[in-house]
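We were asked to recover a plausible sequence for a given structure. The inputs and outputs are reproduced exactly as logged, with field labels preserved.

PROBLEM: sequence recovery
POSITIONS: 328
GIVEN STRUCTURE:
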């Protein structure tokens, strides 16, 4: 790995002003990736039919992100043009007409980008997605989580190196404030639950794409932060593109581990994550950027002293380029 390695996290479902919507952190991730190899969570780069991912980023779901900084795993990033074989799980609750849109999407991804879908599995029972929002944080439950585990195991036995999951979300997942880029993502929390379920059990890259009953494309000019979702009838493309080049998960001493990371960059009021606390324990430098969320977990409340603090991501990028002696 020739570039210095940094990690950037935008926690899911907490309404981050930048990155809490529909791929609206993507342009920032790509600017940093010009100079660094980024370890990023899917929330930072996914944008419906669009994705900010490239080979200078390691796409790492939240549970694995935390395990990485605990020192329990390491990563082997994909080499240029190297890709994963992806297994797909479809919730049996998805209506036929909506499922057909997703199947056409998979065909398009194969034809246009040669993304390798090794196999598809359908759950025998509906997964039963239940969405909850409390204290401005989204979360939720699954009625039949074992259905996903059963399908994932079958796909892995068929050779899948990463797992994409598509669950059905009914009209309860809609939120007018979020659509206006003013609130939290109501499905972000339960999406994390779904991906965590797979990665926790199998230590394999996984990500979720929701399937909605309404797949209409908006004809209105909307807030740019949500525009990529408004032009998307399915969210599979960003998930498939991210998983296609997600890193291999390996033992701590067999790949890139937290000791190779220069900095973890995190919103300044969202410092309570497992990854941040592990960085403090393992002496990984933490950089905070002003990026308001619904949380209020600051350096003062945790008695944490960041290595550096910035008012913007642009200021952060310009400074750490100088710190690591990178020429513009």
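RECOVERED SEQUENCE:
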């Amino acid at each position: 790995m020739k570039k210095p390695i940094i990690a950037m996290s935008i926690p899911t479902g907490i309404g981050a002003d930048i990155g809490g919507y529909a791929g609206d952190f993507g342009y920032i991730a790509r600017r940093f990736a010009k100079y660094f190899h980024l370890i990023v969570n899917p929330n930072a780069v996914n944008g419906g039919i669009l994705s900010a991912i490239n080979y200078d980023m390691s796409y790492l779901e939240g549970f694995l992100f935390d395990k990485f900084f605990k020192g329990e795993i390491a990563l082997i990033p994909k080499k240029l043009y190297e890709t994963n074989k992806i297994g797909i799980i479809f919730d049996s609750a998805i209506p036929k007409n909506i499922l057909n849109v997703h199947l056409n999407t998979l065909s398009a991804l194969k034809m246009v980008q040669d993304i390798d879908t090794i196999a598809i599995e359908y759950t025998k029972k509906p997964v039963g997605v239940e969405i909850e929002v409390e204290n401005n944080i989204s979360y939720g439950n699954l009625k039949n989580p074992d259905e996903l585990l059963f399908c994932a195991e079958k796909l892995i036995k068929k050779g899948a190196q990463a797992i994409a999951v598509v669950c059905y979300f009914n009209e309860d997942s809609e939120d007018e404030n979020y659509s206006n880029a003013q609130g939290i993502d109501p499905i972000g929390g339960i999406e994390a639950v779904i991906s965590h379920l797979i990665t926790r059990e199998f230590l394999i890259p996984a990500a979720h794409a929701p399937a909605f009953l309404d797949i209409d494309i908006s004809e209105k000019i909307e807030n740019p932060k949500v525009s990529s979702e408004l032009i998307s009838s399915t969210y599979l493309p960003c998930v498939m593109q991210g998983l296609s080049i997600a890193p291999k998960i390996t033992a701590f001493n067999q790949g890139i581990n937290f000791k190779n990371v220069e900095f973890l960059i995190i919103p300044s009021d969202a410092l309570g994550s497992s990854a941040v606390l592990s960085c403090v324990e393992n002496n990984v430098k933490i950089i905070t950027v002003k990026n308001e969320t619904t949380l209020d977990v600051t350096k003062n409340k945790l008695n944490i002293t960041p290595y550096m603090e910035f008012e913007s991501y642009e200021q952060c990028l310009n400074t750490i380029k100088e710190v690591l002696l990178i020429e513009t």
